[in-house]
């Protein structure tokens, strides 16, 4: 069983399906390497010594093209709750694949908190259950 199928199965999305649709690259924007900085660097610049309350963003994407909005919030250091119940299984699987890669690349975490509902937590956010 491949890694993608294992992740899809673990996250409750069943068998990973082949993607029917091609990616839509119309909205791509080129970004210079100098424009990228970590969430902790942005937070340090924005907050300074004053601690602001954490922000949790709840999103319910309806199509895969909504992925950049999720990515933007997560890269800004915000915790995201994503509900993919309004998406087809194929698109929901693609979206979960995307955010799992995003979380891994940003050293964050992804947790399934309900059927088709996922928590994306930046590296500096501690998740406890109890």
What order do the helices and strands come in, and which of them pair?
Layout: H1 3-10, H2 39-47, E1 56-59, H3 67-75, E2 79-83, H4 89-105, E3 109-114, E4 117-121
Parallel strand pairs: 1-2
Antiparallel strand pairs: 2-4, 3-4
Helix pairs in contact: 3-4
Note down, in words, how this protein is organized.
It holds the Pfam family SepF. InterPro entries: Cell_div_SepF, Cell_div_SepF/SepF-rel, SepF-like_sf. It is found in: Cytoplasm. Homodimer. Interacts with FtsZ. With 130 residues, this protein is an alpha+beta fold. It has 4 helices and 4 strands. Strands 1-2-4-3 form a 4-stranded mixed sheet, covered by helices on one side.
Q: What is the structural class?
A: alpha+beta
Poorly predicted ranges:
none
Write down how many β-strands occur, each being a DSSP E stretch of 2 or more residues: 4
Average pLDDT confidence is 78
Structural key phrases:
130 residues; alpha+beta; globular
Summary of the model, kept short:
Cell division protein that is part of the divisome complex and is recruited early to the Z-ring. Probably stimulates Z-ring formation, perhaps through the cross-linking of FtsZ protofilaments. Its function overlaps with FtsA. The protein is 33% helix and 15% strand.
